[in-house]
Sequence to fold (599 residues):
Amino acid sequence: MANITSKSSSIFNMTSRTRERMITVITWLLLAAGALIMIFPIYWMVATTVMPREDAYSRELLLVPPNITFDNYVNGWNNSPWPQWYGNTLIIVVTSVAGITFFGLLSGFAFAKYQFWGRNILFLIILSTLMIPLQVLLLPRFLIVAKMGWANTYWSVIGPHMADIFGLFFARQFMLEIPDELLEAARLDGAGEFTIFFRVVAPLAKPAIAVLVILGFSARWNAFAWPLVALTRQEMYTVQLGINHMKGYYFTDFPAIIAMVVVSVIPIVIMFLTFQRYFIQGIARTGIK
Amino acid sequence: MSTLVPSHADHYPTYFHRWWSLNQKKVVPYIFIAPTMLIFTTFVLIPIVYAAYISFFKWNGISEPEFNGIRNYTRLLEDDVFWTSLKNTILYTLGVVPLSMILGLLAAIGLNRKQLPGRGILRAIYFLPFVISAVATATTAGWIFGDTFGILNKILVELGLNKVQWLTNRHTALLTVIATTVWIRMGFCMLIYLAGLQSIPSDLIEAAKVDGATARQQFFRITLPLLKPTTFLLLVLNVIYSFEVFDLVFVLTNGGPGYSTTVLTVFIYNSAFQTQSVGYASAIGMVFMAIIMTITMIQWRISNEGGRID
Fold:
């Protein structure tokens, strides 16, 4: 009797397990097919850049490059002042990311851990600016930056990029989890508020700093609309503006333009693949909480 | 007694030091938020007030501004390009939001299966387009969707089908822009849904299985209702993103051909920086902001009510 039930239940288990396995296989096939569609544009982007121009502009369908060349990279790199544009981008990105991270942590800490007059109303004002679209700000911000004498300077881009609502929000969420007792203990030991921030809070916030730096870097590296307005002189361009500029001038040489697109994308892709965990954590957190 | 830092509490060399050690906890938070507040005031709050002010002037950005009351706003109501770009923005949103959310949800459900080989790689592939800049994507899309040398049309010809004017036809250009955006946004939706799925306790699903619920019932009765907060969040984020899309459209089509892909942001940009109607552009901006705020408020209201019913 006991034997029969155990036998029938094992058969039942086996069929349900094969069923589960079947579902896994079908799921995998569908996901892999989807992944092929997702990756194809990126594959084609890279494939284009290693084809000789005649192949890229032939009417034949060449899904795999029959001839390989790196001329497109050489042509693309040489027809525009890329070293200058990369230099501009690095200066702007590094300074703004340092600003976002430092000021974000400072204000996030203040909003999370201090009681002060006007705290809630100030936080509410900052949050409500989330509803202001960047495109509405471009013009008046440009007029103000011009009045400050900042037009076509690094500061015109760095300044507005040094505060970021998501950065502040993320830093504040993180700081809320730091126990008050820890700060009180440091105060009892005679530490001032600045010492507490730099010696106690900042070291604890390393994971938050990693997320802020990584997300900030990719956002500032990819920024387009505001730099487009603020930087009108070619020698001040960032990489994104450079690509947009090249697209207007060398539209008959797409393989060279795309080669420069690939170069511009490589740092972000490497960063994403290396720090995937932080990317995902940061986006899931700022999105969800 | 060991201390973290040398203490000033036991001796007060100056009046300032005494005041400081008594009051620093009240003063320091203002110092901490000062840089952020300064940047927000200079680059967000003042500009928005300034834009509201300019919107009542006729101005080309160079000569003396001329007050003209609400005429910029009445002009807007009669401007066909405004209505076209509003229509395009809404169509774009109606295309992008459901498509990227449904595809993202399906991918997330698939990727949430345990024992799926290559889960990490698949997830990275789906998310990769979101990491790449809109300028890079738009430039590459311009090449892929090209009429003669674009790879898609070459494939269509090889299959014996007709070529499609992906970006050069008034009726297809917006669809092409939507498809490109779904390619970018789908991985983002997948990621947020994946986080939502992972927060569902697995014993809840197990309990349903024991009670004999079919896979369909499990999904529609348990998983989907529990994902409601995630869905609301994605809806808010995606609608706002779609309304505010600029980089991709500007680089890919610049609103063309004709005005067939001109969305509100591109219309504002071109009015401000191409035709130099600075006052008019500000008025469009104000209306645009009012639209965004209305949508956000409605969505908040709905999501709060949804929360109360549960």
